[in-house]
Design a protein that fits this description.
Layout (H helix, E strand, L loop, with lengths): L10 H8 L3 E8 L2 E9 L9 E4 L2 H20 L5
Antiparallel strand pairs: 1-2, 2-3
Length: 80
Amino acid sequence: MPAPATSNPDPLEALREEFPGHRVWRSMRGDVPGEWCATLHDPKAGVDPTLMEPTAAELRERLLAERERAKARLEVPARH
């Protein structure tokens, strides 16, 4: 896995810094943190509106993939 683009030791803040086109947050299961989540706010940053993964590392991989999907979608010429 490539190293994160930030050196922030807090994984939640690191994801927020690396992926500003998403709102990154943790769900809660009662008093216990649950899934790592990202909600799309910038269509140039992804395709799927919401991502959920069990770990920060897995969410980061999905966010990287979303970035590539968005880039590919934006590179496709419009049909007339």
